[in-house]
Each structure stands twice: as C-alpha cells, then as structure tokens.
From TrEMBL:
Chain ranges passing through the membrane: none
Cofactor(s) for this UniProt protein: NAD(+)
Classification of source organism: Bacteria, Thermotogati, Deinococcota, Deinococci, Deinococcales
Family, similarity comment: Belongs to the NAD(P)-dependent epimerase/dehydratase family. dTDP-glucose dehydratase subfamily.
GO molecular function: dTDP-glucose 4,6-dehydratase activity
InterPro entries given in the database record: dTDP_Gluc_deHydtase, NAD(P)-bd_dom, NAD(P)-bd_dom_sf
Coiled-coil regions, chain positions: none
E.C. number: 4.2.1.46
Protein name: dTDP-glucose 4,6-dehydratase
Residue ranges constituting the NAD(P)-binding domain according to the UniProt record: 4-303
Length: 341
C-alpha cells in the first residue's frame, strides 16, 4: 500500500511513520509536511535512507502539490496528522489554525474525492469541549469546542463526515486523548515540565492544576489508528485513549518523582483563558475492534519524562532556538506575577 502521511515530521506523525514501516514492511510512505516550527526532519533521522520513505515539504492547503504528490506516488490512503496543534498558540495567533486545520483538511478531501483515495483524519478529544464529572464522551456526542484550536479541529471533523455523506468518500476519524511520548515539541505540558525540571526551572501550572486529562502513550495511539485503518468501519469515528484521567497536579508529581526533582519547582500561574476543566472519553468502540492500550496513564507520563532525560540532544537545540521567544511571551509575565505574590 502507498500511504501519504501528512504531518509525518511532527510528534505523533513521526511515531506513526516509524511504527508503520516497522510493522508493514511492504508499504511505501510519503511524508507530506510543511516543516513548521513543530515539524522536524530529525524526528525520523534514522529512516531517511530507507527507500520506502520520501519527504515532500509542502503545505496541505496547496491543492496542486497535494494532487501531484498523490498522482506521482500512486497514493491509496491519506492519513492526515498535519495541523497546528497547540491551544496556547491558538490563543496567541488563531488564523493559521483555520488555514491549516480547516482549509488544509478541506483541500485533502477534495483531492481524495477527485482521485478516489481513502482518507483517515486524526482528530482530538478537545472537539467534545469540557466534560462534566462522571460523563465520558462517546463518538456520537455533539461537538462543543471551546478554544480556537478545538473549534478548527471540530470544523475539520464535520467536513470529513460531510464528504462521506455527500460524496460517499471512504473516510474514518480517530479522536485521540492527550498524547505523551518521544519527540513531542516542548510547548506541550509533559515535555515542557520534564525539560524545565531537568534544567531546574519552575513548572508553570495553570490555575489550580486540578484540570483532568487522559495522558495516553503515543504508541497506543499508533496502534489505535492502525486498528481503525485495518478493521474500522468506513464512515465511522473512534475515540482513542486509556479511558482514565488524572489531574495536572498528579501528572506534574509523576514527572518530578520520575526525574528525582523537588515539588518546590511547581508554580501556580495565571490560568489559560477558556481552559477546559476535564476531557474524558469512552473507548469501548475501539476496544470492540480488538484494540487494547499497552500503557496506563501513570506509566505513560513516567516513560515520557524518562525519554526527555535520556534525549537532551533532541530537545536542547529546540529550547535554545526560536522556542525561547515563545516561552518568554507565554510565561515571563505569568511567572513574574507569581513571584510577587
Ligand atoms: P505536532 O504539532 O507535533 O505536528 C504537526 C505536524 O504538522 C508538524 O510536522 C508540522 O510541520 C505539520 N504541519 C503543520 N501545518 C502544516 C501544513 N499546513 N501543511 C503540512 N504540514 C503541516 O502535532 P502532533 O501533536 O503530532 O499532532 C498530530 C495530529 O494529532 C494533529 O492533527 C492533532 O490535532 C492531533 N492530536 C494531537 C494530540 C496530542 O496530544 N498531541 C491529541 C489528539 C490529537
Ligand atoms: P497541553 O499539553 O497544552 O494539552 P491540552 O491543553 O491540549 O490538553 O496541556 C495539558 C494540560 O496542562 C492542560 O490542562 C493545560 C495544562 N498546562 C499547564 O498547566 N501549564 C502549561 O504550561 C501548559 C503548556 C499546559
């Protein structure tokens, strides 16, 4: 099979490309990636010499290039990981989220329709919005996104479903929980807290830190997507997570304990506007296809923290580059306010 994997140089995409080539040795993969700040060639460093793997550096919103790439490589399946992905970035500069997540996905759907290609879309639990205690989102729940990021992902999901209903395009969607693991850009909470702890810098916890997330290992997300690609029903949506949540303070405690650092590094800083208190998904539909997660959330967070301790050579160049500007913009005032209290 010939796969076009968009966003394959990002966190989850690169883990998926590595997983797929190892478990499906007869397949060929084109990574189609714009290489934004979050997309890094080095995330697939050891694989670039593999004749089964190619890179096209381009934007998913560029219809001509998407079409040409699919035609030249005889694409049978598009897996769409490409997105702007960070909620805090979507608060600072939301328009690019619409350009990539909504229009980019729409362009992929148009090319898939024209050339008759199956499209699998990677979505998120954030499209369900804040989930009150005791409820777990199921795939047919109404979408109620609350951040510009989540709203752009929800819009994309609805376009994907509309293309199935209107044109009969063969599509599937997976909605992943908060992923953790190797190669996650350190703007996200677990790699940010892990790398800050390793450097002895404060950990900026938004608000009271009692927000709840399902921290799932990226490996289990990859096997969940594989399960849907091989056995999922066309036109259907599948949640992918562990089905268990913890508070951010619990997550921070696991990171600090794993790295042997003191809890005095924690700083409660001004909260994120519109911060969703809780995400929680029911994952029975995916389990019914025979999928089981390998990691529980505590193991997932601890494994991720250890990976950052063992791979300083991956994240140190990121943290010393353009990331510093973002970090100052996002945290300098918050941390200074906290020190004055
Ligand atoms: P990431 O930010 O690490 O990587 C995104 C990738 O997309 C990068 O390689 C980037 O260069 C590429 N990209 C961005 N804009 C592009 C464009 N216009 N054209 C082509 N490529 C472009 O993101 P991630 O965490 O790996 O997330 C991957 C997907 O999974 C996203 O769709 C995201 O919404 C979804 N998701 C993420 C999580 C999570 O916890 N990280 C959870 C659920 C779902
Ligand atoms: P994040 O990794 O940004 O994922 P999402 O917002 O998409 O769930 O954040 C995970 C949780 O950690 C979320 O509740 C916000 C919180 N958080 C902090 O408390 N401080 C931070 O500096 C960051 C980046 C996140």
């Amino acid at each position: 099979m010939n796969l076009l994997i968009t966003g394959g140089c990002g966190f989850i995409g690169s883990n998926f490309v590595r997983y797929w080539l190892e478990h499906h040795p007869g397949d060929h993969v084109v990574v189609y990636d714009k290489l934004t700040y979050a997309g890094r060639r080095e995330n697939l460093q050891e694989l670039w010499g593999d004749p089964r793997l190619r890179l096209v550096q381009a934007d998913i919103a560029d219809l001509e290039t998407v079409r040409r790439s699919c035609q030249e490589h005889g694409t049978d399946l598009i897996v769409n990981f490409a997105a702007e992905t960070h909620v805090d970035q979507s608060i600072l500069g939301p328009l690019v989220f619409t350009d990539t997540n909504v229009r980019g996905t729409h362009v992929l759907l148009e090319v898939a329709r024209e050339l008759g290609i199956r499209l699998h879309h990677i979505s998120t639990d954030e499209v369900y919005g804040h989930i009150p205690d005791r409820h777990q989102s199921i795939e047919t729940d109404p979408l109620a996104p609350r951040s510009p990021y989540a709203a752009s992902k929800a819009a994309a999901d609805q376009l994907v479903q509309a293309y199935h209903i209107t044109y009969g395009l063969p599509v599937t969607i997976t909605r992943g929980a908060n992923n953790v693991g190797p190669y996650q850009y350190p703007e996200k909470a677990v790699p940010l807290f892990s790398t800050n702890a390793i450097l002895g810098e404060p950990l900026p916890v938004y608000g009271d830190g009692r927000q709840m997330r399902d921290y799932a290992h990226v490996f289990d997300h990859c096997t969940g997507i594989e399960t849907v690609l091989l056995r999922g029903e066309i036109g259907e949506v599948y949640n992918v997570g562990t089905g268990r949540e913890m508070t951010n303070l619990e997550m921070v405690g696991i990171v600090l304990d794993t790295l042997g650092k003191g809890h005095d590094l924690v700083r409660h800083v001004t909260d994120r506007p519109g911060h969703d208190r809780r995400y929680s998904m029911n994952v029975h539909k995916l389990r019914a296809l025979g999928w089981e997660p390998r990691y529980d959330p505590r193991q997932a967070v601890a494994e991720a923290a250890r990976w950052y301790a063992e791979h300083r050579g991956w994240w140190e160049p990121i943290r010393s580059g353009e990331f510093r500007e973002y970090y100052a913009r996002q945290y300098a005032e918050r941390l200074a306010d906290q020190e004055q209290r």
